[in-house]
Each structure stands twice: as C-alpha cells, then as structure tokens.
C-alpha cells in the first residue's frame, strides 16, 4: 500500500466515528441532539428509526443475533454475518443518543451483542421506509422490525 493511501473499510464499520456516537449522551441532554460526522459532509444527528406501533404490538417471529452499530454514521442499526441491518424500533422506544430502551426489554447500547426478536424485509424507500435517510438505506442490506430484544 502506498503511503497516504486510505485502506478501504466496509461502509457500515466506522471505527474512528463510532466513539463519537457513544459520547453523544451529554450533547443530547444539553442541546437535545447528538451529532457525529457524516463522511466528509456536514454534521448530522444519529437517528433511531421507529415503527408506527408500540412494543406490545411488535412481532418476535424470528431472531437476529447481532451487534448494535451506527450505520452510515447516521442510523442505529446492527451487523450480523457480514450484513448490515437498519433497525426499526417500536414507537414507544426511548433513545438518549447512547442507550435504546424498548419497554419490557433490557436497555441496549451501541456495541452490545444482542438478539433482536422481530422480522426483516427489503428496504422500501418508496413506501413504508420512505423516512429512512438515503445514506442509511444505501449502506444497509435489509431493515429489521424489532418486537423485543434480549442479550445472548
């Protein structure tokens, strides 16, 4: 590799940017938002995608063992088996920029290894997933609708 050449990293791994997203809790409490670099572009907030229904209405028909990550430096998601997933949480999920709290489930943080109960599907940016930022949709392989979360 030539000096000064950047090594290609998978688009959903941001080892230098991930700690910035973890340090956002204070910014959320003080300013109501959390900002991390979005590639070489402007600073943007890390988003938690929410479904239209609460946790009690969520399905846990399938299990996705995964590590919670920030996808495309913008959306809370997960990585499992070399695939990136956007995670759509129940409508009553709380998010403070660092910790995700789904009712009747343990709190999880970016970097935790968890099992998401729910179901997955292709990302439909022209339909149900039209609120997903383009960068997040392009960086993910699938979207996972969460009904519950457990550790292990």
Describe the structure in your own words:
There is one protein chain. This protein has one domain. The protein has 3 helices and 11 strands; from the N terminus they run ααββββββββββαβ. The protein has a 5-stranded mixed beta barrel. It has a 3-stranded antiparallel sheet with strand order 7-8-9, with no helix packed on it. A two-stranded antiparallel ribbon has the order 1-2. The relative contact order is 0.22. The N terminus is likely disordered.
Q: TL;DR?
A:
With 152 residues, this protein is mainly beta. 12% of the residues lie in helices and 38% in strands.
- Across the major sheet, the strand order is 4-5-6-11-10
Average pLDDT reading: 74
Largest sheet: 5 strands, mixed, barrel
Percent of residues in beta strands: 35-45%
Distance between the termini: 39 Å
Q: Which geometry do the CA atoms define? A: globular
Low-pLDDT stretches are 1-44
Please state the CA-atom Rg, rounded to the nearest Å. Answer: 15 Å
Helix content: 10-25%
Class per helix and strand makeup: mainly beta
Based on DSSP secondary structure assignment, what is the total number of beta strands?
11
Number of domains: 1
Series of H and E elements: HHEEEEEEEEEEHE
Total of DSSP H or I helical runs spanning 4+ residues: 3
């Amino acid at each position: 590799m030539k000096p000064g050449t950047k090594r290609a990293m998978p688009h959903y791994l941001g080892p230098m940017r991930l700690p910035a997203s973890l340090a956002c809790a204070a910014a959320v409490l003080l300013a109501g938002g959390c900002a991390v670099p979005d590639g070489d572009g402007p600073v943007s907030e890390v988003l938690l995608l929410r479904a239209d229904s609460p946790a009690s209405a969520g399905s846990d028909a399938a299990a996705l063992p995964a590590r919670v990550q920030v996808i495309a430096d913008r959306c809370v998601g997960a990585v499992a088996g070399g695939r990136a997933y956007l995670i759509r949480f129940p409508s009553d999920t709380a998010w403070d920029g660092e910790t995700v709290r789904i009712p009747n489930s343990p709190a999880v943080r970016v970097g935790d290894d968890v099992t998401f109960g729910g179901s997955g599907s292709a990302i439909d940016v022209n339909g149900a997933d039209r609120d997903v930022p383009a960068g997040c949709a392009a960086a993910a392989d699938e979207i996972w609708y969460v009904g519950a979360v457990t550790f292990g």
